[in-house]
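As agreed, record copied across for absentees:
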Amino acid sequence: MNISKFFIYCLIFICFFCSCQTTPVNLKEKAKQEIEQSEKDFLKMSTDKGIKEAFTFYADTDAVVKGNNDSLIKGKDAIANSYSSPGINNSSVTWSPDFVDASEDGNLGYTYGKYIWRSKDSTGKVSEFKGVFHTVWKRQKDGSWKYVWD
């Protein structure tokens, strides 16, 4: 075999080998997209099924929510109980993340943005409270995302 044939075979082998390699998935970017979708799904559930249902469903078992007067509501059951108060039924919340980021391995992420909480009293008067939210998301064993801090 002459040297030029050897180089041609080597070149063919390298091309074949490179074409068999899969492109690595950017776990961080994939996680950011999934978290952004989870935020949208979370908001939709809140609108369609209610605040309690959504905040309970999207809570990790050990989630923590910052409550009134800087109190901390710890655990999914406590969160469900907290969102069972009578005033919640006459309330709605909307939000939109201004920023989404995730860890390099794609297992943790966070969002922040603005929200509007609206409550209707017994006379029908609507009160509106605007603020900034910060949510920390954790990938679950089944691949879904649940918040651990809100």
